[in-house]
Design brief:
Length: 293
């Protein structure tokens, strides 16, 4: 099967986002032709007015992940910026930062990273995150990059016969095959009462752009409904593997006080675990989303 196509729709969208004067409140430099832009001229410590928010949101829909440099934010400023897009979740399993809405990822010579797998945040929820804001507090001298992938482009690149096959299919997303592995049977049973497996379309529709998105991921999607186990596993492996195609990706090299804002509905990400035993400390907020359709 062909693995990558760049059709006219993708190229047209790229052209729209790069038009001169597309944004008046900041500069936007693409990180890759498909996904990601680094914005300049925005101070996230300051209040965001309606005009600036409109441009930021438009850029987010176009590029799916936005990067900002030299943003020395407090936790309160981090939360205030994130809340522009909606209410924030409190993660059910990960360690908190200074406030409950912030998750802290602290890795060093005693704690290795385990986020080096393609995933969409909390897809095991009935209403997964709409987006996330991640900031770097401490970074290794070399390594620790993060890669994002455009899952709309991944869907667009599928052969037509695969698109026809998966149209209308549903998959089950479950925290138990990741976070649940460290739980006792009693802990798992209690967590399952609050977070039962969620059923989402294999191809979801973006609620704002109307674009189709390939919505399965390696870490949380347990199986595709209605298929024999072997057949379903083979299809799931193939679909999850689309995230690894470089043409759909961008890669970001962190510096201290860098910030990333991404649309969790149409992307997946992969945090490289290549920096051990160096120290890397990141903090993330997540914006509550809606039920995929």
């Amino acid at each position: 099967m062909p693995r990558f196509t760049a059709g006219p729709a993708r190229l047209q969208r790229l052209g729209d986002g790069m038009q001169e004067g597309a944004f008046t409140r900041f500069t936007a430099v693409p990180v890759s032709p498909t996904i990601g832009a680094e914005l300049g001229g925005v101070d996230l410590r300051q209040p965001v007015d309606d005009e600036l928010f409109e441009e930021l949101h438009r850029a987010l829909l176009e590029w799916k992940v936005l990067f900002f440099r030299d943003q020395e934010l407090s936790s309160e400023q981090h939360v205030r910026f994130s809340r522009l897009w909606g209410e924030l979740e409190v993660h059910p399993f990960l360690a908190q930062g200074d406030v409950p809405e912030i998750v802290r990822f602290a890795k060093d010579d005693k704690t290795k990273a385990v986020e080096n797998v393609w995933h969409s945040d909390v897809s095991f929820r009935e209403s997964p995150s709409m987006g996330s804001v991640l900031r770097a507090l401490e970074v290794p001298a070399v390594g620790g990059d993060t890669i994002w992938v455009d899952m709309t482009a991944a869907y667009d690149g599928l052969p037509d016969q695969v698109k026809d096959r998966i149209d209308g299919m549903f998959a089950v997303h479950d925290f138990a095959q990741s976070y649940g592995l460290a739980m006792s049977p009693e802990e798992l049973a209690k967590a399952r009462q609050e977070l039962p497996p969620a059923r989402h379309p294999v191809v979801r529709t973006h609620p704002e752009t109307g674009r189709k998105i390939l919505y399965v991921n390696e870490i949380f999607t347990s199986h595709i409904e209605g298929l024999a186990p072997d057949e379903g596993e083979a299809l799931l492996v193939y679909l999850c593997g689309q995230a690894a195609i470089p043409e759909y990706q961008c890669r970001f090299r962190w510096r201290a006080n860098s910030v990333a804002l991404w649309d969790n509905r149409g992307t997946q990400h992969y945090a490289l675990s290549d920096y051990w035993p160096q120290r890397r400390v990141m903090e993330r907020s997540a914006i509550i989303g809606d039920k995929p359709f």
